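Re: PPS structure - here you go.
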Amino acid sequence: MESAAANGPQPPGGGAAAPTPAPAPRPAPKLARADGGAPFVLLHVAADGGGSSSASGGCGGGRSGASSARTSGSGGGEGGQCQHHPAERPEAPPPPPPPRLHGAAAAGDAGARIEEFGTAAAAAPRTEIGGGGDGGSVASSDGGADGGVDAFVSGAPRAAAAAAKPAPRAAFAAAPLPRLHLSHEHPAVLAAESRPRPPAPPPRRPLRTLARVYLLSPLLLPLAAALWLAALAAGLAAALLVAPSLALARRLYWACPFIPYIWRGPARARFGRAGALLLRLQFEGAHCATVVGRLLSLPLRPYLPAFYIAGFPKCGTTSLAAYLRLHPDLAGIAGMPGHEALGKESHFFGGILGPAAAGARAAALYRSFFPTVLTAWWRAAARGAASLACFDATPTFACMPHVAARAAAVTPNAKVVFVVREPTAAVFSAETMLRGMGVPLPWSLAAPPGGGAGDDPEAAAGPQAALLRASWGAGLRGLGERRCGGWAGDAEHDALWAALASLPPDAPLPPGLPAAFYFRAGSYLRGAQYADRLAEWAAHFPPENLMVVDFRRLVEAPESVVREVLAFVGADGERYRFRRLPPGMATNYAGAKMHPATRAAVARRWFAASNTSLFRMLGVEGLPGWGAPFEGDA
Ligand SMILES: Nc1ncnc2c1ncn2[C@@H]1O[C@H](COP(=O)(O)OS(=O)(=O)O)[C@@H](OP(=O)(O)O)[C@H]1O
């Protein structure tokens, strides 16, 4: 190793480089190169002024950790590439003492340059190392007072190194020098390079690649496009069907608020959570498809009902509708396949399509529930139907406010059939049905008197009576709640029904009305006060258009009753073929029976006057079995 000062010529553009006092010689470290070459230049910056030293050159730089000075390397201009070819390097002479560098060695674009800034450097003359065209530059700036830099500038031409004047100092002469390695000589790098490498993969055959691209892409691209289109179609279908499905299901649940209880209760118990969910999706999907299909095919649907089976709930309306549908000329609702009740009940005037059921578009919308002309043609061809007459059998029509007015506005000439059943039996049938659906009713006709719908609920003690009173609310305010309700005092009942009666017929019904109707014992009891409900219909339809059917006769002599109804609605009885059908919407009592005392108390308190009014309306002394529950009733 040789000193830059010893070997370097004066730089071409060099400044005033003055020699510095010679430092005390120190033992030069033995730095062996892996390739055996030794073109290293050791730059030593004195502790009294040389703080940081940066060396730039084609080989990069390193940090001299002991000196806290910086040594960095970069390309040194156009000619700043380091060459490390051992063949070009002469034998290394015995190392002289390292030079002491105080100044900058500038070599223009192509030279090595060493600069030193700082107080000591300012006082000291500058030393410049002139590069020979391929050298790096070394700059030394002020850093710490005690710092020094030992830097090996590799690849610097001997000429550039020789330009530096030796300026060793005693403090650095004795300093231990770290052992550094150039990147391409670092043992870790060399070890990594000497490691065996996995064999390179054989070069791809361009022909096979081409074959893949040109032969498979015609198959894969259409497949990918088809998959993409299918996903798009599924997304669109979901967007188009799911949203209306949810909206329509909500309308349906508004009209029949007990249906969601089915998914939570009996359906889960029978089919499990996933099964109940699937059942619900099927139901809502079918309902959505049915309603959307009906609305889309509205131009093909010219029919409005010729008559209604308007009530009463749990009085055999499903059976009567089924018997009437046996007639070739009569058609009910174009219902949901597989859903018995919704195949007969539109719930239209009760608000299943919202306020539109009462507005100017009501007739147009209502037609969507009835069959198309295609059905009429098919019936004429296959069953010899003369003309098609449609009917709507929604049993809650008889009990809901304003339905009579709305129906009369749309179909003023329609006939209306009511089936009446001994009221307590009808209410108990409803209670049993709702309970079977999982509706947690807080009232029961099976309970002893005072336990709910008893003789004097206001004075009744016990948790059930407290719940009944608490759950009622007051007037219309109570209609908003979705929870099941129960008993109300007479005053509250009167206020509620008066408030409902005061609504304009084309006003939307209160949001909680169906829930209030189905889940409140009071509403059910009011619904079974037939005389009052019939009076409302009689106010909107001529009396000759109204017919009352006794449930008991429907059970005992269904054909006679059906023929009477056929004659009433104007259907040709000659072409009617009767066949006995199983009871529709039969409730599973599972051994439950009305409590006799409760039944007697409710009949007396709630239905005695109403029944008397009905008998007077009908011009009869009474109806068989109405003094006591019909034997066929539980
Ligand atoms: N043919 C015949 N024989 C005996 N009982 C019969 C018959 N047809 C209907 N029913 C009974 O009527 C009750 C159902 O009435 P609805 O169809 O009007 O119910 S609903 O309002 O439509 O839900 C329901 O009463 P319950 O069983 O007491 O709940 C049916 O069993």
